[in-house]
Amino acid sequence: MSKLLRVLNIDDSEDDALLLLRRLSKEGFEVKFERVETAQAMAAALSDRSWDIVISDYAMPNFSGLAALSVLKQSGLDLPFILVSGTIGEGLAVGAIKAGANDYVMKGNLERLTTAIERELRELEVRRERYQAQEWLKYLARYDPLTDLPNRNLLYQRLEKEIISHRGDRKSLALMLMDLDGFKEINDTMGHQAGDLLLQEVGRRLQGTSHKHDTVARLGGDEFGVLLTGVKIAPVLPPPNC
User: Fold this and answer.
1) Measuring CA to CA, which residue among 76, 33, 27 is closest to residue 53?
2) Which run of H or E residues covers position 112?
3) Are 66 and 39 spatial neighbours (Cβ–Cβ below 8 Å)?
4) Cα–Cα distance between 185 and 171 in angstroms, integer?
5) E strand intervals along 123-167
6) What tens digit of pLDDT does each residue of 183-238 get?
7) What values do phi and psi take at 36, rounded to 5?
């Protein structure tokens, strides 16, 4: 079964691009292929469409492989970049790798291209999985995954920030803490799935009655906290004289 491969090719030679396309198709790839030969066209292609890999010639009259590598870096995309050239020497190839290229393949040795592509795609998948794991850990450090509300840590951080920012002025804030009566009975009689749905609904309702600058957080279990900013607190008046 062929594997879909979306290739952005930077090359000023249509014939060389066709040879590359035929080689990849022969190796069993279902290739979605586009050739560009200017920085502007490359930047537009990276911005408008999704790609699996970038394959570039090294020496072109108006646009070099290193310039193409720079365009890819400026885009902020994490894509494998492979140079395929008939003129690049060992010294230039090493310099290109140091500049950020993932590999280089001589045009007379395209048999090695498939191995290079498959290796780089595997490494890309590992990088993306690692990044997703890191982002998930960052999320769990600040948010409750059940309700998607800020957790205790983030609530305390925002409370501390508000206290520091309002120190010395006369603005007020309030922190409300609440829990749900009878929540254990719901879990015991209707199951934890029903309890989870209840917690999610409580979170939505608290958010619906709060202002956008307030913080609604789930502290854990059936406990919630609401940080209210910019509240007006009525002055405490002395009791009337009897």
Assistant:
1) 33
2) none
3) no
4) 41
5) none
6) 999 999 999 999 999 999 999 999 999 888 899 999 999 999 999 987 766 666 67
7) -130, 160
